[in-house]
Amino acid sequence: MRVMADDDMIEETNQPQDIHDSPEDDFDEESDDSEEDFESLNLQLDQLNSALDELEQKNDDIHAQLILLLQSNREARQQIQDSLKDQEIT
Fold it and tell me: Which helix (H) or strand (E) holds 19?
């Protein structure tokens, strides 16, 4: 806002800023938003970590079952080979 002073000199005056529009308040709002974003991201990462842990456990279970199946197949194959050898001998 401009105010006329003595001898037609022009003086500039600053309007007081609204408290809610100060840079500090903007920073606080951004900080709050950032904090909420980080909390949300942290929660999503925790959920992802839990899902990955579950997948890893399922993978370990499947791997253990496959090991047992392979062992069972080896034993069955060995029994079949032994049986065929016995039949050839007789």
Answer: none
